[in-house]
Amino acid sequence: MVVGAGFSGMYMLHRLRRLGLTARVFEAAADVGGTWWWNRYPGARCDIESMDYSYSFDPKLEQEWDWTERYATQPEILRYAEHVADRFDLRADIHFETRVMSAVFDETAATWSVSTDRGDDVTCRFLILAVGVLSTTKTPEVEGLETFGGRWHHTGRWPHEGVDFAGLRVGVIGTGSSGIQSIPLIAEQAAHLTVFQRTPNFTMPARNALLDPETVAALKTRYAEHRQAARMSRTGVPMTPPEELAVAAEPAEREQRYRAGWDEGTLFGISSTYADLYLDKAANDTAAEFVRDRIREVVADPAVAQRLLPMDHPFGTKRPCLDTDYLATFNRPDVSLVDLRETPIVRITEAGVETTAGEHELDAIIFATGFDAMTGPVLAIDIQGRQGASLRERWADGPRTYLGLAVAGFPNLFTITGPGSPSVLSNMMVSIEQHVDWIADCLARMEADGRRTIEATEEAQHFWVAHVDEVAGMTLMPQANSWYMGANVPGKPRVFMPYIGGVGTYRTICDDVAADDYRGFRFDP
Ligand code: FAD
Ligand code: NAP
User: Fold this and answer.
1) DSSP 3-state assignment of 522?
2) pTM of the model
3) Substitution candidate for ligand 1 out of 40, 67, 375, 428 with most atoms within 8 A of CB
4) Domain ranges, ordered by start, for the chain
5) Predicted local confidence at residue 98, as pLDDT
6) What is the overall mean pLDDT for the chain?
7) b/e string for 104-138 if b means 16 or more Cβ within 10 A?
8) Tens digit of each residue's pLDDT (9 = 90 or more) over 336-346
9) Which atom number of ligand 2 is nearest to the Cα of residue 322?
10) How far, in Å, is the centroid of ligand 2 from the Cα of 133?
11) 150: how many CB neighbours lie within 10 A of its CB?
12) Domain 2-136+372-524, what fold?
């Protein structure tokens, strides 16, 4: 049984079928696509180039599909997911509008008993959580929302019919990727837009454009080689790792490299210039200051520019954003910026948002406030493993996994792109395919060897959690109050959740584990 029919669950189903196993997927949404089914806000698009942010498992699929833009829009990505579902007849084994509520492991039968919000009770041997890492939305616990007289939406639960902002006074709360993508387009429609910013973010121009057919055709002729380079790369996108240090470089030459990175229009343009950017604060400061200079350049009002400068976290320690006209939007006369650090929100009122400086009257509020990332969707399910052990209790101090794939005490349970794997630090398509392939190969091997259960050992898990933590600790990443750290959810343990050792390194570790008869796992015959 697979939970979730985003890109993870869809490919997992395809692989399970090819193994000759009987598989069913349960999905809360009404169709496939996961992230791209739910996040329909204006401006939603990928920030990994479309030709990389797509499946590689089927050469015919990748040859027949033509992306139209360098960074595809949400509707186009959703059409792609639908195309894949049609092509491999996936919907036949997916139960839509069905949310999995609990899963209990039966030690005698070695099966999982799974229940859904539709009253299904399903028994399965293997339970695969393809629930996503950014699928549990987080709306702030702010007083008075129920009294608001206008309409409000979360970017991650956007109405399918769209929202018409024409003539409205709109407030957007949040300036992460979702806010930064939607703000310029909402500003174009609304009578007035107020942006409520708690933390300014590092953002770079996406330089999105239509893909020209020659570029597409050229990449398609060497797609296999390109995909292999992605699989062994640091981030899931082919690139040569930098060796030089920013702190050792001449300022003029550093500036030139950052400029080239900025002009590239990718998430990694600047971060891949020098090897020490995420390791040494002095090095990072040089890149951070370069980006801050670009903000000062674009934003006309120096006081507004000052408020937009990210100062409280090193560059890249919160996920940077790629934007189209975000900064220039603040030059519009009908857009204002409220700095929530100067004037925090007190409550939502019937008329709008009240901060310590007074009331902002609004007709609509958009929460671009993000997600209970990585652990949220897993822990939303009441999961009980051996001896009734509760996953919620086991993870009370932060997630503990072996390789981000399995949890000690929870046999035959797998998590796709779970905490402890590169996941959100990577091109997710590459990480999803790697996990699905690893799990499918593991199940095939178990079938061949007549093994009934697989389970991570406590020792292996202990080692892996310590390793994930140690590698993160070598970087600047834990210095930010990011969602990688769980810092956006009040009360969530502060643990750096993804594995920052790199996609290729991680793949090699997983492959070695499998080749060594699944070192760190225990099988029951
Ligand atoms: P999801 O797409 O999140 O799918 C999980 C599915 O599981 C959901 O449909 C959900 O309804 C379902 N589900 C969860 N819990 C249950 C339950 N209990 N019962 C039943 N169903 C359940 N990554 C990139 O690499 N590049 C990008 O450019 C990029 N852009 C993004 C843009 C946005 C707006 C967001 C939010 C994320 C983005 N991501 C990006 C990350 C993105 O989530 C992944 O790339 C990828 O789509 C995840 O696929 P998935 O199948 O693992 O999870
Ligand atoms: P996010 O990065 O977590 O941003 C949420 C924003 O809301 C932050 O600015 C946050 O401020 C603010 N916020 C949260 N709670 C608040 C509160 N109570 N009061 C005021 N402000 C509050 O969420 P997201 O923008 O949805 O993005 C999440 C992730 O999804 C991204 O990092 C990325 O991985 C993925 N994504 C990708 C794209 C893309 O470009 N393809 C688009 C959207 C999302 P603080 O920083 O102070 O917490």
Assistant:
1) strand
2) 0.98
3) 428
4) 2-136+372-524, 169-212+224-367
5) 98
6) 98
7) ebeeeeebbbbbbeeeeebebbbbbbbbbbbbbbb
8) 999 999 999 99
9) 40
10) 13
11) 17
12) FAD/NAD(P)-binding domain (3.50.50)
